[in-house]
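Q: Hi! First time doing this. I have a protein sequence and I read that you can turn it into a structure. Is that right? Here it is:
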Amino acid sequence: VQLQASGGGSVQPGGSLRLSCAASGSILSINVMGWYRQAPGKQRELVAEITSGGTTNYADSVKGRFTISRDNDKNTVYLQMNGLKPEDTAIYYCKQRVRSRTTWGSREYDAWGQGTLVTVSS
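A: Yes, that's right. Below is the predicted 3D structure, encoded as structure tokens:
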């Protein structure tokens, strides 16, 4: 299974971006989908996640500004980011907990995207 993330870029404070992350491959089901970020010199942190049932969880720092959603038919997770701040600058990674087919049945594991850079600066 491969994850392809897109949508990063450079914006001014207060601006908006929408990230997308599509999974492809031998996928039987996808449980949790999420976005993480890693700023220079910091550890990777959870930004937001969404379960297969639609339950969401957000980091306190992005509540009210970011919205996570998913399209199960497209195996895609989105992150709408509004009111961006300089402290949101980071590489954003998507993660999807996928169940994929194997020779002997199936297995569940976390697949990661390649990361997309978000820069917020005036």
